[in-house]
Specification:
Blueprint lengths: L1 E7 L4 H15 L5 E5 L5 H6 L6 E3 L3 H16 L4 H5 L25 E6 L2 E3 L4 H6 L5 E3 L18 H4 L2 H6 L6 E5 L5 H12 L11 H13 L3 E3 H4 L16 E3 L2 E4 L2 E2 L2 E3 L5 H8 L4 E2 L3 H8 L15 E2 L6 H8 L8
Helix pairs in contact: 1-12
Amino acid sequence: MDGICILANDRVYDQLIALLNSIEAIYGQEMPVCIYPYNDNIEQITQEIACRPYVQIYNNQESIQRWDEFARHIWDTHPTAQQHWLTFSQEKYHRFGTHRRYGAFDGPFDRFVYMDADTLLMSPLDKIFNQLNDHDWVVYDFQYTDLSHVYDEKSPKLTEIFSVERLKSEIFCSGFYASKKDIFPQAIRDSLLEKLRQGETEVLYDMAPDQTILNYMVMRSGLSSCNLAKRLPDDEKTGCCVTSNHFIAKDHILYDGNNRLTYLHYIGISSRFFKQVCEGNNIDFPYRDIFLHYRYLKEPEKHPVYTTKPKAYNAPPSLSKRILKKLGLAVGNK
């Protein structure tokens, strides 16, 4: 059985609703969805999916605990990660819970597409699933142009483990990928952990913990992988990130030239801005109207009405806020 997997909790509730609605707009209720809980903060999500029979929340506690333990073992052997994290947080592990998306390798679907909660589906996924006939791993992004958010480029071990050519061509973004159940059985996980314990953890980039581990797992295991951003002809491929400002909207679907996007990733836009927009704050960000369309697709009467001038999500703070911050009196964003 094929399905879509999502990592979420109530913090990204509005984004999750938009994503689920975009999936329904493409597939109706024919595409099953499994939500992997980032943590136990899932009360709103649980209530919401009661009216979505095709959606389930992953509740295999043995699997969840197994991947929790796997992630802890990795970061406990990293030479500097925990020391680094403690400089800006009291948490021993940074963004612990992001790796719970790995539960999809144990989950209900034989083949799946994983989508971050800050994405929207723009097209059917046939071309993605079709590639799984010949590959174990399928992505569609341009992360290969930027190694710095995947591995620690300063590590001398990096090019000992992976060739420069592989580092230029095989890395990927962990926000969207397709794979299969059971491709990381216990024996492979144990083998990877042993290599990491022997010193290879130093190549991991500690500020994107799930992404760096996933890239390492796929590349170190030698899985057969395919990136459609490299494989498709230039006149067929599209972008996927909100940072591209040239997409054209037609009937609430985005196009890159004449080609329909497969998905849109609101990468780099904090979940708090989506929440604030849904609360009626007129904060502008790229393709906001597309997000709002899908967020309120089933309840258009709740679509917020804005009465103030829009303010860019990345606008610099006002003079008064800068002064307050300098004086140590800033109380955060309102």
